[in-house]
Amino acid sequence: MLISSNSCHLWPSTPSTLLLLRKCETQNDVNQIHARIIKTGQFKDSSLVTKIILNSISSPHRPLVEFARYVFFTRYAVQRIRRNHLVDDPFLWNAVIKSYSHGNYPIRALVLFCMMLENGFCVDKFSFSLILKACARVGLVEQGKQIHGFLMKLEIGSNLFLLNCLITVYIRCGEIEVARQVFDRMPMQDSVSYNSMIDGYVKCGLVDLARELFDSMPLKEKNLISWNSMIGGFAQTKDGVELALELFEKMPERDLVSWNTIIGGFAKCGRMEFAHHLFDRMPKRDVISWSNMIDGYAKLGDIEVARNLFDEMPEKDVVAYNAMMAGYAQNGYYTEALEIFYTMQRQRNLSPEETTLAIAFSAVSQLGHVEKAESMHSYLVENGFSLMGKVGVGLIDMYSKCGSIENAMSIFRGIDEKGIDHWNAMISGMARNGLGELAFKMLMEMQRLSVIPDDITFIGVLNACAHAGLVKEGTICFELMRKVHKLEPKLQHYGCMVDILGKAGLIERALKFIEEMPIEPNDIIWRTLLSACQNHEYFTIGEPIAKHLMRTDSCNSSSYVLLSNIYTRLGLWSAASKVRTMMKKRKLTKTPGCSWIELKGVVHEFLVHDKSHPLVTEIYFVLDGCETSNLQDIDVLELHRDLTLQDQPNKRSKKFDHLILGPAAGQGHPDRLQCSGTKALNSTHFPTTPHSANTGDSIIVY
After folding, report:
1. Is the peptide bond before 60 cis (omega within 30 degrees of 0)?
2. What is the gyration radius of the CA atoms in the chain, in angstroms?
3. If DSSP states are collapsed to H, E and C, what string results for 202-257?
4. In residue terms, where are the PPR repeats (predicted)?
5. pTM beyond 0.85
6. What distance in Å separates the CA atoms of residue 517 and residue 501, rounded to the nearest whole number?
7. Torsion sign over Cα 614, 620, 625, 627
8. Who contacts 325 (Cβ-Cβ below 8 Å, separation ≥6)?
9. Which of 240, 271, 357, 512 could form a disulfide with 234 if both were Cys (CB 3.0 to 4.6 A apart)?
10. Predicted confidence (pLDDT) per residue in 43-69, tens digit
11. High-pLDDT (> 70) share of the chain, %
């Protein structure tokens, strides 16, 4: 409560009004002041109106900024338009335009600027600079060109400051050639002109042109920004990092940006020995310096060195924690990544960014632990994070990947202003959890609510239809994309359709679909059809596809295994062995499958050929009783060998490790089972949710 009933005697007073306004942080605070100003008639004081606008328009508190804009439009601009009082000084107008140009609504700056021109108000070079900044932020190149033309008709059209603003607009809008034309026609250039062009060339990947301009730049105009831009340009690639170092050594002076840029370049290229040498030479380090080193070592897999550097840091910020978390996550240490996140939570002066949360979400998703997901959710709620942006999308995705589609749906329903990313995350989650019909219904719901889907939406729905065997719905979805929403399908969409048709056994139709594609099918699409040929024993179509793939992508083991399985199912053992021999000669091996199951809050992880679980004997006892008829996409030749080695357990391949179920292991019912990195269940079409033969427990296939 900013104003009490006992403080009324202080009013009306301009200083006290402005003082109280500066203390406002919430909408309720602003409403109190607004009501008191109206009651005391202070809006009649034009000088107070001006001071309210100028004092509040740049406030960090949004309610106060909105109040300043309200006062400007209702008490200042409208009255001057009605009275035709066109002041010469646009200072107040510029202040409001700046609040839009630098704020969340840059397009409104353009609207206000047009309002000034239409009503004959004076504009100056600052008005133009602010509106050009707004155009640059939003990418309004056509409006930028119109302002450029307007400027050329005015005396200020040759102003160096405004021409530099124009260069920035064209560069931000991707019009680098037009920016260069403006640069070349300038009566004179300064360091800002050169640096803008050099930076523009670098960001467009035109480093050679940037170097050419840098070399032609007058020595007096070269400054740290010029040198750092060039070093940053060369340091982006492995081939350019040596040139970056050459420039770095020639610099007349260096700052932290210079050191961090060159170290970051060597770190990204994996040349950590040289990066560490430069790191040791630094006269002074900041958090970016340490984070570059942590990130570089983590990407090479030297996670212990990265952690030692992290522990040695004199002070850490969010960037440092992000680097260490990402390093652990990239190397598969998901629990350790979360421990870093929890450590950061305990730092009172640090608050996680969206990037931090994205890494944490990913770690929880990889662990597949619902309790950790719920804990993360509670943390977000307790700390007031909005779920309307990327945080909400990440939360939906995390719950879905943990197999908790109910929680994901609860989050989705609780978000009032859903963006397309929220819809896409929910649809992808349904696809991942085998809920094809619900995913398709969600697409229909989007149609009803006039939510415009994008290409990612359709990939999610088509994937869901493929997993659920929904040929009709998948076809409708594909046609809806092309004919209603006028979206050109990409390879992923065509691949999904081939998967839908192939899993349904419509092999000839899938082949015809591929042959009629307007774009060249890739190996993934052909391999999808080959997998379907194996599952449905289409030898005549599958064999030539496999041989084609073995010629064009000879290093991919999947094609060999699929062809071997086709031969084996037909009893062509000699042909299957020849394919296996070819694999051995080319030193090709299958990537081991990985899967996990959560039982009573404990996640059990398994690899193919894994014997490390303490209950391995009981597990295989259950697996021996599993029906193999539903496992249509396992390695058939190895399965055949397994069946002939039943009396030699130590020689049996552990091809069924991913089917571990809790009751057989004495652990209670499984919460979720996930298979990844293996084709054992992934490509098998189940018309309904599959069940264990002996236990009756449902298996969620991801």
Report:
1. no
2. 32
3. HHCCCHHHHHHHHHHCCHHHCCHHHHHHHHHHHCCCCCCHHHHHHHHHHCCCCCHH
4. 89-123, 190-224, 255-285, 286-320, 419-453
5. no
6. 14
7. positive
8. 337, 340, 341, 356, 359, 360, 363
9. 240
10. 776 777 777 787 778 778 788 788 878
11. 79
What is the pLDDT, as a whole number, of residue 190? 92
- Indicate whether 630 belongs to any domain: yes
- The confidence band for 86, taking pLDDT boundaries of 50, 70 and 90, is low
pLDDT digits (tens, 9 = 90+) for 553-603: 666 677 777 777 777 776 778 777 777 777 777 776 666 666 666 666 566
Give the count of domains, the chain.
1
Q: Which of 298-312, 475-489, 523-537 has the lowest mean pLDDT?
A: 523-537
What one-character-per-residue DSSP string does 301-361 give? T-HHHHHHHHHH-SS--HHHHHHHHHHHHHTT-HHHHHHHHHHHHT-TT----HHHHHHHH
Phi–psi pair at 604, nearest 5 degrees: -105, 125
Region for 13 from its dihedrals, namely left if φ exceeds 0, alpha if ψ lies in -120 to 50, beta otherwise? beta
What is the per-residue pLDDT across 248-265, written as a single tens digit (0 to 9) for each? 999 999 999 999 999 999
602 Cβ neighbours under 8 A, 6+ residues apart: 667
Which of 627, 631, 617, 624 is CA-nearest to residue 535?
631
Segment 461-483, tens digit of pLDDT: 999 999 999 999 999 999 999 99
Q: How far apart are CA 344 and CA 324, in angstroms?
A: 11
Which span out of 504-508, 619-623, 685-689 was modeled with the highest average pLDDT? 504-508
| Helices 91-101 and 62-71, packing angle to 10 deg | 140
- Residue 127 exposure: Cα atoms within 13 Å on the Cβ side: 22
38 lies in some domain? no
Quickly count: other Cβ atoms within 10 Å of residue 611's Cβ.
13
The pair of structure tokens assigned to 637 is 């030749």
Question: Is residue 109 within 8 Å of residue 130, measured between CB atoms?
Answer: yes
Identity of residue 61? H
Range of the domain at 612: 594-676
Residue 223's CB: how many other CB atoms inside 10 A? Answer: 15
Which residue, 119, 146, 144, 123, is CA-closest to 134?
144
CB neighbourhood size of 299 (10 A): 18
**Is residue 525 a part of any domain in this protein?**
no
Of the candidates 287, 288, 297, the one whose C-alpha atom is nearest the C-alpha of residue 266 is 297
The model's confidence at residue 13, banded by pLDDT at 50, 70 and 90, is: low
Q: How far apart are CA 115 and CA 92, in angstroms?
A: 14
β-bridge mates for residue 606, sequence order: 595
